[in-house]
Design a protein that fits this description.
single chain, 4 helices, 76% helix
Length: 111
Amino acid sequence: LIALSFLLFLDHCNIIHMESAHVLRSSVLKSLSISDDDPKGLASLEASSGLKFIAVDQYVFWMYELDDAPKKIQSAEEELEQLEENQMAIEEELVPLAEEFAKLMANPLVK
């Protein structure tokens, strides 16, 4: 039991990579009398160990998202900068129109 737990911990910390990590996880949970479908037991095990057990495909997806985040942030910042430049250009175009509007509204014939 201790050896299985230790191997699971090493796999979780990416010290070793085992293709059968899911089977190993299930075996450890069975030996601890916690089923895969028992959310309370699994939550208790995760809380006591300080680890979060996730499937490998979920881990890979999260790592891809984290690796891709700086590119997405840079792209969003560039888009925001472009939008701010467009806003400033539009506001500059509105200044003469606002002046013309104020001039026309000041005309006593409009009132």
